[in-house]
Amino acid sequence: MQISTEEYQQFKPLLFSIGYRMLGSMVDAEDIVQETFLKAYQMEEQKIDNKKAYLCKMVTNRCLDELKAVRHKREQYVGPWNPAPLLQEETNDSDPSEIILKKEGVSIAFLRMMEHLSPNERAVLLLREVFDFSYSEIATIIGKNEDNCRKILSRAKQKIPYIGDESLNYEKNKSIINRFIQAFQTQNMDSLLELIYENVTLYSDGGGKVRAAVRPIVSLPNVLSLLYGIIKKVPKDFYFEIRNVNSQPAIVIYMNGTLHSILSFYIIKDKIKEMYMTMNPDKLPLSK
């Protein structure tokens, strides 16, 4: 298949976005995108009316195969599994790759909820709800008929809650996180109760590589106890900042001169419902 430089630049962000949302892994998504282009280049020349759809089908099918292969690995994973955080710079919205990445369906909360779906449910939900593919296009991509795709989407939407625009308001959520930090530092329980649900859950992902809670931490007292316990043991050069992670504000924590962990949030109705602390060094960005 002949793919021009312009087409490569055009399709690559979309293919990466599908792969990353399907797998929750930047490394795996990048590998699959490169593998897809390589296979496309090696294909015998043939008439393809829609290169975009064809490449999306290749990436989606490769992701479906990967999901089936990693299911056992996920079951054997040490502790909770969080998607790899995507640390984004504040960039111009005219950049097409940024526009794709800022669309709904990239937040850590959404990606983690996707773990409750089967591979086909995940693919149909993403292609329809996030990328606006038609049912006929989705049917071609995953090899199902249109009625089956509609049924698959219906099942998927019953399994996970919809994360709407209100829950993804960046500036509002950043304000809530700043208030949480201030209340946490001053141990203002009244403010913390206003900002965090009593049944809040924290998922701490160390992947067996670093020390982390091996089970989800449930309830406000238990979550605060864990966080205060961590703070008591941090080195003198500890510092943090709020950064754009998966198109949402998150607390990026540095210790000993390197990135130590990223704390992301699921905020609904202006209160923190879930927290995701990712410490597995294999999932953290290499640079500041």
TrEMBL record:
Residue ranges constituting the RNA polymerase sigma-70 region domain according to the UniProt record: 8-69
GO terms for MF: DNA binding; sigma factor activity
Keywords: Membrane, Transmembrane, Transmembrane helix
One GO-annotated biological process of the protein: DNA-templated transcription initiation
Domain RNA polymerase sigma factor 70 region 4 type residue range list: 109-160
UniProt cross-references to SUPFAM superfamilies, sorted A to Z: NTF2-like, Sigma2 domain of RNA polymerase sigma factors, Sigma3 and sigma4 domains of RNA polymerase sigma factors
Transmembrane segments: 212-231, 251-268
InterPro entries in the cross-refs: ECF_Sigma-70_Domain, NTF2-like_dom_sf, RNA_pol_sigma-70_dom, RNA_pol_sigma-70_ECF, RNA_pol_sigma70_r2, RNA_pol_sigma70_r4_t2, RNA_pol_sigma_r2, RNA_pol_sigma_r3/r4-like
Domain of life, source organism: Bacteria
NCBIfam families tied to this protein: PRK09636.1, sigma70-ECF, SigX4
Oligomer status and interactors: Interacts transiently with the RNA polymerase catalytic core formed by RpoA, RpoB, RpoC and RpoZ (2 alpha, 1 beta, 1 beta' and 1 omega subunit) to form the RNA polymerase holoenzyme that can initiate transcription.
This protein's name: RNA polymerase sigma-70 factor
Species, as recorded: Niallia alba
